[in-house]
Amino acid sequence: MKKKTSKQLKITLVRSTIGCIAKHKATAVALGLRRTNHSVVHADTPVIRGMIDNIRHLLKVEEV
User: Which CATH architecture has domain 8-63?
Assistant: First the structure.
C-alpha cells in the first residue's frame, strides 16, 4: 500500500508586518515567519490555507 503524500506549500513573507493589525502580526508569527523575505514550508491543510487567506496581501505562496 502506498503512502499518501501531502502537498507542501512554500510561504514567503514579502511585505512587512509593521503597521498591520495585531491579529495579522500574530498570524505571521504562528506561520513561523519572522522577517521580510523569510520562507517556511508547511503541509497544505485547511488550517494553513485559512491562515494564508487571512494575510494573503503580505505573502507569496508556491507549491513545492
Answer: 2-Layer Sandwich (3.30)
